User: Which sequence fits this backbone?
């Protein structure tokens, strides 16, 4: 991986993180860092014989990583809310809405 490719991946993850669907999360920096780690592990999997659009490949990798991280955070929130409910405290509003 060249330094230019690394810089392009950083810029790409930052731009995708600025999109409306991801920009409101407080853990956006963690999402970006996990996406960059995932790209560093799988950058060589792009097959130029299958497609000539590396931009689309790396963009989809970043988006998939963001969605995986969001699912992870949702799971952690649900665990926390279940524990709060067990101990008699109030869980989050989202948990209350999903339980009804």
Assistant:
């Amino acid at each position: 991986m060249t330094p230019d490719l690394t810089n392009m991946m950083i810029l790409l993850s930052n731009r995708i993180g600025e999109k409306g669907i991801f920009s409101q999360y407080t853990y956006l920096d963690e999402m970006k860092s996990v996406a960059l780690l995932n790209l560093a592990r799988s950058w060589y999997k792009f097959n130029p014989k299958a497609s000539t659009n590396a931009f689309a490949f790396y963009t989809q990798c970043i988006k998939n990583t963001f969605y995986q991280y969001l699912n992870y955070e949702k799971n952690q929130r649900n665990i926390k809310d279940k524990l709060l409910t067990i101990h008699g405290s109030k869980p989050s509003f989202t948990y209350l809405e999903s339980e009804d």
The chain has a mean pLDDT of 90. The chain has five helices and no strands.
